[in-house]
Amino acid sequence: xxxxxxxxxxxxxxxxxxxxxxxxxxxxxxxxxxxxxxxxxxxxxxxxxxxxxxxxxxxxxxxxxxxxxxxxxxxxxxxxxxxxxxxxxxxxxxxxxxxxxxxxxxxxxxxxxxxxxxxxxxxxxxxxxxxxxxxxxxxxxxxxxxxxxxxxxxxxxxxxxxxxxxxxxxxxxxxxxxxxxxxxxxxxxxxxxxxxxxxxxxxxxxxxxxxxxxxxxxxxxxxxxxxxxxxxxxxxxxxxxxxxxxxxxxxxxxxxxxx
Length: 259
Ligand code: CAA
Description:
Blueprint: E1 7-12, E2 15-20, H1 31-46, E3 52-56, E4 61-63, H2 68-72, H3 76-81, H4 86-93, E5 99-103, E6 106-108, H5 110-117, E7 120-124, E8 128-130, H6 144-152, H7 154-163, E9 167-168, H8 169-174, E10 180-182, H9 187-199, H10 203-218, H11 221-235, H12 239-249
This protein binds acetoacetyl-coenzyme A.
């Protein structure tokens, strides 16, 4: 098991649990967190024994944003030359296997954006989402203006970005930002159970289903539908597809090979 400075990683059967662990900074996302998450997600993606991942924070905060103290001392040229924030897209969003964000407490700025990089968000009733960057004289930089707008529509995204106001769990569910709300005390157990259910599916099919739904965000309808058909056709070539359909006919659970 790898050990990290800013996150905790454990494997529970086929599910990897990653916990953000910078309580002194409400899990603010600094360069080290990105490096640690990049390594943990790459290891997860590469490990055939791991089939779903849950990313969570603490009771008080999933993550309170990019690390303001780290950013405060950087010059504009540093942000540009480092292509600051690009690693999130390259290393975290690029994960091909499914992962869930289990959010309690604050998910602000980069924290909200990190949650939105997940395949879906399960929220505790204590979850609070927001893009307060405007109060710092900046704007979202890890995808918030795009993903929040696609998730909740222009009116709410615009209001949240312009005022910095937070959205509670109820409003987040009503608006389509999160898939479900659970009592805070049940959050982790519920997310792990959901992850285990996904991990029990034919692995290639989970990867393809994820890719397909993401296409709806990334392409036009015509291209998305074409890609969906081709990906569907790709899955018909797997041994697990033959097994899955045979198992249905024989009224028994399928036994997956992952290919
Ligand atoms: N970066 C660095 N440190 C942070 C932080 C952040 N984003 N958020 C909280 N912390 C630190 C605080 O500085 C404080 O540290 P000290 O004890 O050393 O003072 C510690 O975490 C605890 O925080 P608070 O005392 O502020 O806790 P609170 O309960 O009073 O308030 C809060 C909680 C409302 C979330 C408040 O901490 C807050 O407003 N945080 C900043 C939220 C924010 O602006 N996020 C956006 C960041 S910019 C961004 O993310 C850019 C992007 O698009 C990627």
